[in-house]
Write a structure and sequence with these properties.
Blueprint (H helix, E strand, L loop, with lengths): L9 H15 L5 H13 L1 H17 L6 H16 L1 H11 L22 E2 L6 E4 L5 E4 L4 E6 L4 E13 L12 E5 L2 E14 L4 E14 L6 E4 L2 E5 L4 E6 L11 E8 H9 L5 E4 L7 E7 L3 H11 L2 E7 L2 E6 L2
Parallel strand pairs: 5-6, 13-16
Antiparallel strand pairs: 1-4, 2-3, 3-5, 4-5, 5-7, 6-7, 7-8, 8-9, 8-10, 10-11, 12-14, 15-16
GO molecular function, one term: sigma factor antagonist activity
Protein name: Anti-FecI sigma factor FecR
InterPro entries: FecR (IPR006860), FecR_N (IPR032623), Ferrdict_sens_TM (IPR012373)
């Protein structure tokens, strides 16, 4: 089905959904929001696609327009009655395109909006999987489960997980355990490790035992042992080094800073709260040391303001900037 002269094309709708997913992550900067606005204003069909998203939300959610909540609530509600594939079709029809692949990333083939397991902004979730593995999902994380007779595969679409591999004692034969990301895969070797999908690669830290890293386009695997961490993209493994001893503090709801630039600290805190959080460039490199709560980011911001020469400037509850005091 092709789009009419006044209708958004499937490509434009794909882009609108891509913006929705990007803003849903909870860590989008003011510049990213501005980029989205410029895209909406660039052509009438861009604006129409976005308006339709707003319209769907008003029909399916009794709350102010929030793009990231829109598709999630639409799909979740419809899925209860008709399954996920048909729910995707419902969203497509509501957008006026009839295209059933609106929210699919064609290159990666996975979408956070339809993931088996998801966490929202500021949510950390603990799960015991069918094989006995224990998984902690960080804020704004999405995972698909692909367990069959031959293997156990967790597809990490976005975010971060900490995984302790289970014994899989109910299986009739050995099934290897993998974490798949857009950049390759991690094979667990009886281990506890964490994996984070970043924009241009995947970060892995081994907390006990070992894992094997296999980048998507590489023929060789890289063994990563306890106490080590590495970053890899589709082409290879990079930055293999000793792991951050506090790297898994998030599993306890904490962020440990050791001479951490304020800009980095603020970016980390911002992942756990809705809205926009930033710091003035004049204090961006201010070194910060301390332990900060990720469960109560307001308390962490108050601690920063009381302990360092900083002041919180609030435009709204959801727009906060740290500036030099005075």
């Amino acid at each position: 089905m092709s789009a009419g002269p006044n209708e958004p094309s499937p490509e434009v709708v794909q882009k609108a959904i891509a913006w929705l997913v990007r803003l849903q992550a909870g860590s989008a900067s003011a510049a990213v929001w501005d980029e989205c606005r410029l895209w909406r204003e660039a052509a009438p069909e861009h604006a129409l696609a976005w308006e339709r998203l707003q319209g769907i939300q008003s029909r399916f959610a009794a709350m102010p327009p929030v793009p990231s909540a829109l598709a999630q609530q639409t799909l979740d509600g419809a899925s209860k009655h008709m399954g996920r594939r048909k729910a995707m079709g419902l969203l497509a029809i509501a957008m006026g395109t009839g295209c059933t692949v609106l929210v699919a990333n064609r290159q990666w083939g996975e979408t956070a909006l339809l993931a088996d397991l998801r966490t929202g902004v500021g949510e950390v979730r603990r799960l015991v999987l069918a094989d006995g593995s224990v998984m902690l999902m960080d804020t704004s994380t999405a995972v698909n489960l692909r367990f069959d007779e031959a293997e156990r595969r967790l597809v990490l679409i976005k975010g971060r997980i900490a995984l302790t591999s289970g014994a899989d004692s109910e299986a009739q034969r050995y099934r290897p355990l993998f974490v798949q990301t857009p950049h390759g895969q991690v094979r667990a070797l009886g281990t506890r490790f964490q994996t984070q999908v970043q924009e241009d690669g995947t970060q892995v830290q081994v907390l006990s035992d070992a894992v094997e890293l296999r980048p998507q386009a590489a023929s060789q695997v890289q063994l990563l042992r306890q106490g080590e961490q590495a970053w890899f993209d589709a082409l290879g493994v990079h930055e293999l080094k000793a792991g951050d001893g506090d790297g898994d503090a998030w599993t306890d709801g904490l962020l440990v800073a050791r001479s951490m630039p304020l800009s980095v600290l603020v970016a980390q805190l911002g992942r756990y709260r809705a809205g926009y959080l930033a710091c003035d460039e004049r204090v961006a490199q201010l070194p910060i040391s301390g332990v900060f709560s990720l469960r109560d980011t307001e308390r962490s911001l108050d601690l920063l303001q009381k302990t360092w020469p900083l002041e919180l400037r609030r435009r709204t509850r959801y727009w906060v900037t740290l500036v030099p005091r005075g």
